[in-house]
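Narrative of activities, Objective 1.

The group set out to show that a structural description can be obtained from nothing but a protein's sequence at a throughput compatible with the screening campaign. Below is one input-output pair from the validation batch, recorded exactly as produced.
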Amino acid sequence: MKKLILSLALVVFATAAFAQKKVVRSASSNFKKGNLEVALEEISAALSDPETKDDPANMLLKGQIETKLFSQDDDFAASTVAIGRNAFNSFTKTMEMVDGDKNSKVGKDVWKEEIPGMPDNLRPYSMVSLRLASFDKAIQAYEDEDYTMSYEFFNLVSDIDPADTTANFNAGYLAYTEMGNIEAAKKHFYRLLEVPEYDKLNTYYFLIQIASGEEKDPEAAYKYVTMAKKDFPEDKTLSEFEVQLLLQMNKMDEAFLSVQNALKDDPENAGLLLRYGYLLEQSGDLEGALEQYVKAVKADPDFFEGNYYTGAIYLDRARAILAEVNNLSDAEWEKRADSMTKEAEGLYGDAVPYFTKAAELRPENTEILEILFQIHTRLKNNAEAEKYNQKLISILGEGWMER
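Output recorded for this entry:
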């Protein structure tokens, strides 16, 4: 009796195993015929059964079915991305089941190469197929200006191949510039830093910008600058970043040393000259600051900050003299007021061309327009003062002076 029961149990076991293998064969057949939804349902059932769930070939087939579904899906939607993600997960699980062995039969099929343009019946629908299809969808979505979906497809490509520099740069760029997703952008830029042969300069620029701008973390930004300068010691923009960040961190001595060294190699760099002037101004050397600001404008006449800072130095010096005049004793007033006033007016005049150029560069900047109105009023240049009055009225309205 015991032998009979055991025999019956073995028959049931064998029947069940045979039935599941039949389901797998049917799933494979439907996959080849293009009945993908049916094939996916069948292979999912097989992977839920204890008798067939641990066979890596079955998980491979699931990934292949999902990849074909993904490739044929013409919708650029989250549901399309989800199908691609499911395929990626299925291939990943397949590789885990063979201990990551790409030389095993299943491993070779997971990573089987695909030549673009292959006939459908010859396509392997492998991880490589999934990557190619996702890249094509990313490009199409970008051309359609659907930047969120373009990012999602590039993101999938980069997850399949973290060393794909094109996918990572495009994904990082889209995440940062179009989506404002800083963490996603950093994920891809970090991956680019791990690729030895990749030209990382623009990647460093983005990471510096993110750290110093959105994250308000000059220490982190400075770390990226230091890393970048090791790879690109001749890059002039990195020298400007370095000085700027040292200023933000109030490391004045280091900033002085950095800008002086940078100017030895690039003496006509308007940005460096401006920062050197700023450092001198902060240290109380206004004459030295003015000299550097003037040099910055000579190096780049259309440099807004250079023109503005130069004009501001002249303006501050003029105002300081007039403040001193107001504090003179009666006796000193008689002796010095006229000459000091003329000196101040001369400085006002020196400021005019710089503020005028700044106003040309940024015509909607009402602060500069007001400064020019006040200077010309002070110098009794009535026609010029009225010109700036009218500009301010056109921007701020008739009552701009009472604001």
